[in-house]
Amino acid sequence: MRFRHPDGSIVHLSYCTNVHPAETLDGVRAQLRDHCEPVRRRLGRDRLGIGLWLAREAARVLINDPAELRALRAELDSRGLEVVTLNGFPYEGFGADEVKYRVYRPDWTEPERLAHTTDLARLLAALLPDDVTEGTISTLPLAWRTPYATDPGAAGTARAALTTLAQRLDALAELTGKSIRIGLEPEPGCTVETTADAIAPLTDVGHERIGICVDTCHLATSFEDPDTALDALTAAGIPVVKSQLSAALHAEHPHLPEVRTALAAFAEPRFLHQTRTRTAAGLRGTDDLDEAVAGGALPDSTPWRAHFHVPLHAPPAPPLTSTLPVLRTTLARLVGGPVPLTRHLEVETYTWQALPAELRPRTRTQLADGIAAELTLARDLLVDLGLKELP
Q1: CA–CA distance, 114 with 117 (Å, rounded to integer)
Q2: Which residues of 34-68 are buried (b: 16+ CB within 10 A; e: fewer)?
Q3: DSSP reduced 3-state for 313
Q4: Fewest beta carbons within 10 Å, which of 53, 105, 134, 322?
Q5: Which of 90, 77, 187 is nearest to 132 (CA)?
Q6: At 21, is the pLDDT very low, low, confident or very high (cuts 50, 70, 90)?
Q7: What is the pLDDT of residues 342-381, one digit of tens each?
Q8: pTM here?
């Protein structure tokens, strides 16, 4: 979905396909047929943007077979789908029964991460619509905090990898005329947990093609103030290459038994749900929600937030809620000003099938309805900010 900003530039809105597990190219094609095109039809649009997730196996097939890449591009066109952004955070296995810490490997100290991200950049340059010259890719924020923090060479290795990537992106732009930018995506528990944590390593790399991806669920989970965060990034000259529109789980009164019970329903075995609370002594947290609700690990006199991407249009029932207000404030700063701070927005609710059983979509139709409802909410927010939806 495309929107014209009052300054005349085009802002793209998509939804991320990592909600539909697929490790192979055949799986990706099935996503387009079974999920993406039905969502487009529900929205009554001739064209729908998708933030494509290409796992390692699918990416390698496309890199090694130009005919397969041309065929994928043709299929996107025939189904009324367009790709301007990729989710390069998960490497493989995102549809596994247990993902948890595995999603952070390989990290930016390992050569596989650089190789895979280079492949993704080359693929995106080929998949971009003919009238689009800029693509973006989100990636993990260097590494999970351990063992990175205790390895004296880790920071230098990661910086060297990102510098090499930047050089490759420059060469790609010269070769293809397509500018591909990469955004580190701060996430609780990682080396770069907050936007503030991103400033130093990105300043060290110091390249316009390497910036940040602001995920509004992660921002909220870490209790970051959107205005403060974006002001600091702007002051440091760190570009917001893309933003993922998402909402975290919020518990205002975690000391109450009924709140603990409600939170426990969201603790599940597939993904990590890092949980945070803000105290007078600073941010406190656990790596997963079950550690928090078990009692004793976190102070419970202040609100808790958990890294659980809840549907934008359907916050959980009381006594819980979502951090949609943080998304609204962030979006207003990103695209509500005289010049957009980013032009790529991606709805990323990958946890539909991890919701408590009574809230999960039971059919493809229900899932498509839910994704379409999220995109409709995001569209309405953009229109309210003065952007004009384009055909």
Answers
A1: 5
A2: ebbbbbbebbebebbbbbbbbbbebbebbbeeeee
A3: coil
A4: 105
A5: 77
A6: confident
A7: 999 999 999 999 999 999 999 999 999 999 999 999 999 9
A8: 0.97
Half-sphere exposure in the Cβ direction for 52 (13 Å, CA): 29
Distance of CA 351 to the CA centre of its chain: 12
CA distances to 228, 254, 259, 277 from 250, rounded to whole Å, are 20, 9, 10, 10
Element holding 57 (H helix, E strand): helix 56-64
Q: Do residues 234 and 341 touch, judged by C-beta distance below 8 A? A: yes
Q: Once rounded to an integer, what is the mean pLDDT over residues 318-347?
A: 98
What's the token pair of residue 276? 């945070």
Distance, in Å, from the CA atom of 46 to the CA atom of 136, rounded to the nearest integer, reads 23
β-strands 48-52, 81-87: how paired?
parallel
Kind of pairing, strands 2-4 and 388-389?
antiparallel
- Condensed to tens digits (0 to 9), the pLDDT of residues 143-171 reads 999 999 999 999 999 999 999 999 999 99
Q: What is the mean pLDDT of the chain?
A: 97
Q: Is 174 left (phi over 0), alpha (psi -120 to 50) or beta?
A: alpha
- Return the structure tokens found at 231: 């002001």
**CA dist., res. 87 & res. 200, Å (int):** 23
The Cα 83–Cα 90 span in angstroms is 18
SS3 (DSSP) at 38: helix
The yes-or-no verdict on residue 295 having pLDDT over 90 is no
Instruction: Tell me which DSSP letter residue 278 carries.
Output: E
- Is residue 305's pLDDT more than 90? yes
How does pLDDT run across 189-203, given as a tens digit for each residue? 999 999 999 999 999
